[in-house]
Amino acid sequence: MAAEVRRLRAVDGLSVREIRARTGLGRNRVYAARARQHAEAARAVGPLNDRDLLLLGAAVYWREGAKSKPWRRDDHVQFINSDPGLLAPFLSFLETCGVDRSVPTYRVSIHETADAAAATSWWAQRLALPPDRFRRPTLKRHNPVTVRRNTGADYRGCLVINVPRSRELYWRIEGMIAELFQKVGGAGPGVGP
């Protein structure tokens, strides 16, 4: 193959881009390999059942959600993230736990220089959330020293999902995480009385 590439460059006078397109080498080859891996991984996932959603949701919550501390017990479910790809499965987890999308309150946390109203509308539409459950956005003050990359028309801030009266759901998540940690030989999530 190397000899063919040299010939295409030296004899035929093709550019690197043209050689990549013709031979499938370079980025095209990497992109194709990546696409194959994505497809294989998607097949491995398959359909999700309720148990899968419970475990996925508990793990996602334990990674990204608000947690009680030994010095500050605050047993309620609050989840904050800017990735709709992570928020959607969390909402499915809540539904699997019997929490309809009309129960939580939602709030956009966004920089004051952004369009909070447009972001709120975008989140409601993107995740099929009831607009009347949205609270007033939290505006983050602008810090001129910070170099932000999350700017422009695609910036939507973070969505805060707050589940009222969710103490028992929080305990359920703690229990699932404790059992998962136990099953894999971990020390546990550090939850206690």
Shape: extended
Q: Assign a percent range to the helix content.
A: 40-55%
Ends distance: 65 Å
Total count of strands: 4
Task: Count up the helices.
Answer: 7
Spans of 5+ residues with little confidence (pLDDT < 50)? none
- The helix/strand series, from N terminus to C terminus, equals HHHHEHEHEEH
Radius of gyration: 23 Å
Integer average pLDDT: 87
The strands making up the biggest β-sheet line up spatially as: 1-4-2-3
Instruction: State which percent range the strand residues make up.
Output: 5-15%
Coarse structural class: alpha+beta
State the domain count.
2
Please give the largest β-sheet: 4 strands, mixed
Model description:
This protein is 48% helix and 11% strand. By secondary structure, it is of the alpha+beta class. It has two domains: 2-45, no CATH class; 50-183, no CATH class. The chain has a four-stranded mixed β-sheet. The longest helix has 19 residues, at 27-45. It is extended, with a radius of gyration of 23 Å. The mean pLDDT is 87.
Quick tags:
single chain, alpha+beta, 2 domains, four-stranded mixed sheet
Summarize the structure.
This protein is α+β, with helices and mostly antiparallel strands. The chain contains 7 helices and 4 strands, in the order H-H-H-H-E-H-E-H-E-E-H.
